[in-house]
Amino acid sequence: MTDSVSGLSAALYQDEGEEYVVTPALGSNRDICFVSKNGATNKVEIVVSGNNTPLSVSAVAPKLTINSATDGSGNATSTAAAIVAAVNADADAFALFEARLPPGSTGAGVTGALAETTAADGVTETALVLVDSGDHLIYQAAAGSRYWDPDAAITVYVDGSEVTSGFVINRLQGKVTFDTSQGADPVTADCTRRSELAFEKVLLLYDGKMKISNKDIPTTNNDGAGWESAIPGTTSWEMAANAYYYAGDVAIQAGVAYLWKFYSIDAASDSWIGWGAMSTQDYLVADPNKAQERNITVKGRGELYPEA
Fold this sequence. Notes:
Layout: E1 2-4, E2 7-14, E3 20-22, E4 33-36, E5 43-47, E6 56-60, E7 63-67, H1 80-89, H2 91-94, E8 97-100, E9 114-118, E10 123-132, E11 138-140, E12 155-158, E13 161-163, E14 167-170, E15 175-178, E16 187-193, E17 200-218, E18 230-246, E19 257-264, E20 271-283, E21 294-307
Parallel strand pairs: 5-7
Antiparallel strand pairs: 1-17, 2-17, 2-19, 3-4, 4-8, 5-9, 6-7, 10-11, 10-16, 11-15, 12-13, 12-16, 14-15, 17-18, 18-21, 19-20, 20-21
């Protein structure tokens, strides 16, 4: 067995388990995630209309309508943070959606308009362009359009025509690898992806250990002149750490697979992401001189992907 272990201080994020609507990756602290309280029936729209209008929300089930504040020229002025606060403070709106900012966002940017969108378990992509790695064999979605849902259908097209064989799909990386060169033909995909804008910060971690293990398959035989031999077998991963923060409103069920993102605080360049299930969570006696602690172990349910 070969192991790779590292001690880390990190933040751990979990994929949203409910249906949601996210703004289209606007960036600059402008994005919002709306989490549906009633499955995939609720809808949300942000309207920008009129001059010098105030921010307001109205909810008539199953739709939430948000009217952005505007200036004298009719431009939107409501920030993401202001919209989140307005939605969550209105009883009727909050009965349909809970609004929140993506991890790390200040919400200081102006969101603008959002077309009426129905909550869904992920974000549907149609004719998503995949970028050729240069060898005409490997094609990958751009960052922000990866993490394809493991349970949703994926359709791959080459030069506009559907193909059903001769390739393998890496859903976590949003990657399609062909057996033969596709030349200059464009490659696209229809898929459903998980949105990073819907991730939730769950834990801040210290003394973290990420272990990747490979179980060798013995191939020793009488022709080996007494030498042991083996070939690589199954690979697994496990993350264990102490935690001093927990978002108590985030339900984490033991044994249920979630999409976990593991960032190193001390190294700005790398993170790890994979489907995993929490196997243990031990509560420690609170010390009045320090934050509440707990121990957590997450075991992989599939590949672990290091991201740059």
